[in-house]
Write a structure and sequence with these properties.
It is a single chain. The protein is an alpha+beta fold. The protein has three domains: about 10-110, Uridine Diphospho-n-acetylenolpyruvylglucosamine Reductase, domain 2 (2-Layer Sandwich); about 115-230, 2-Layer Sandwich (Uridine Diphospho-n-acetylenolpyruvylglucosamine Reductase, domain 3); about 235-470, Vanillyl-alcohol Oxidase, Chain A, domain 3. The chain has 14 helices and 20 strands. A hairpin with an 8-residue loop joins β7 and β8. The chain is globular and about 70 Å long. The two termini are about 40 Å apart. The structure holds flavin-adenine dinucleotide (FAD). Flavin-adenine dinucleotide (FAD) binds next to β4, α4 and β12.
Amino acid sequence: HEPPSSCTATRISPASSGIISNTKPADCSSLASLDLHGSISLPGTAITSEDFGGIYHHKPLAIVHPGSVEDIVKVVTMVNASPNLTLAAMGNGHSINGQAQALNGLVLDMKSLKGIEIFQGSPTEGPYVDACGGELWIDVLKATLRVGLAPRSWTDYLPLSVGGTLSNGGVSGQTFKFGPQISNVLNLHVVSGKGESMTCYPEKNQDLFYGALGGLGQFGIITKARIMLQRAPHMVRWIRTVYADFEEFRADQELLISLPEERTFDYVEGFVLTNNDDPISGWPSVLLSPSNSSFDFKLIPQTAGPMLYCLEVALHYDHDEDFVTLNKRIEGMLAPLRFIKGLHFSFDLSYFDFLNRVHAAEVAARSSGIWDAPHPWLNLFVPKSKISAFDAKVFREILKDGVGGPILVYPVTRNKWDSRMSAIIPGEDTFYLVALLRFSPPYPSGPPIQSILAQNEQILHYCTTAGIDMKLYLPHYKTESDWKRHFGRKWQQFLQRKSTYDPKAILAPGQRIFSRST
Ligand code: FAD
């Protein structure tokens, strides 16, 4: 089952999107002679120099909408031959710090390459999907559900591209069970920074296979990925319980991720909330649906501090499941947990609606304008041995007023991450994802962005001074010494892979790790 050599393309109509086919900007005039299947546009039309973060605004010279893998090879070859051009693949542009931007370079709009093909499995081979790099996970889910299948590992939010999350990691409440999305890939089709087009497997071209997974787009453009599938459940019981004590909360999370598969939930996450009635950050943020009874704050012990903790779990089931048995099973799994009795909420919904649960929050945030405001998010992997100290200083002190959005905190285990992949995680066997998903109205209705960035810096500074060997997830640094520290003993391997696959450093300049060489 070799993936087909090229994806089918969606041509973007010049009339509707303002795309021009014959532009000759000063530094990339040879683009016009490439005879592409796809098209070229100028910034300010289809895609601009923006991303979800809204902090960096680097304008490219032009945007290429590839119509085929051959187009990508042509563009990479042309950029290599130029003295100073760079090239950034852009998936859905949901980076925070300009990682998919290319100042005075070219942006490759990966969403113009379409293709999702499903193999339903055989007695000797499990099911999988071949998805083009620019496909969004929401579309992969819709296509696979049509035949009763689905990928095993997810992100919380689905309109992210396959190539974009595989260049980072892709983590969510299933990571403890199946590893991040990068641990669920059977092969990749990649166009390297030298313009070589190849399929990479764990056994063949493995250096590029593992290099590209979590590789921050540094070694090649992922044009297609073969992703493992499993049978999709019909329904999900989504459950939230509340804790006043961080130690009990984290011990229960750690217990749940350590149990054998059949005795635990299918999804384990958690978040921090403010101990007040703030509609965004406080008690109401725990309710799962309007049908949930209201949050009885009188149940919170007097000894509780400024923050509470919400364990979020989910269990899959099918339409024909016997509810008595299901309820008993769930009661059994919740019985040893030490949440505040009475602060327990649940909601049954379809598997699709569960995976797409952030969509409703997106709709609300778009209507209030905060979806389009800057998002100075901070994502960290914090080692288990330091998470209590982190809670005391960061959650309960620095962030005691919340961040205007979710503060996620949940454990994952190192053994689900292959150390040959480029992704960087802490050294301990268990570590926590901490995500500050900040949502504020734009200044002056909300705080100035500088003050939020300063708070992020304060957290990072605390980690350094407290000796917390955390790793940034979706990293962004300004100096080589910071990158070296980030990669630690994997820095030499990262350099080696860069010089092998993208020796002129044309790719993903927005990551600001390497400078273009001639
Ligand atoms: P882009 O921003 O377009 O690109 C990211 C990087 O990958 C860039 O350097 C780009 O050049 C490179 N790249 C893109 N496509 C390719 C390709 N085909 N080949 C090679 N390089 C490529 N992450 C999680 O792990 N879990 C979550 O639950 C989660 N939730 C999120 C929710 C929201 C609302 C947002 C905004 C982000 C979330 N993220 C989450 C982070 C997200 O996974 C990353 O930001 C991811 O990179 C976004 O995908 P994208 O397609 O928008 O990538």
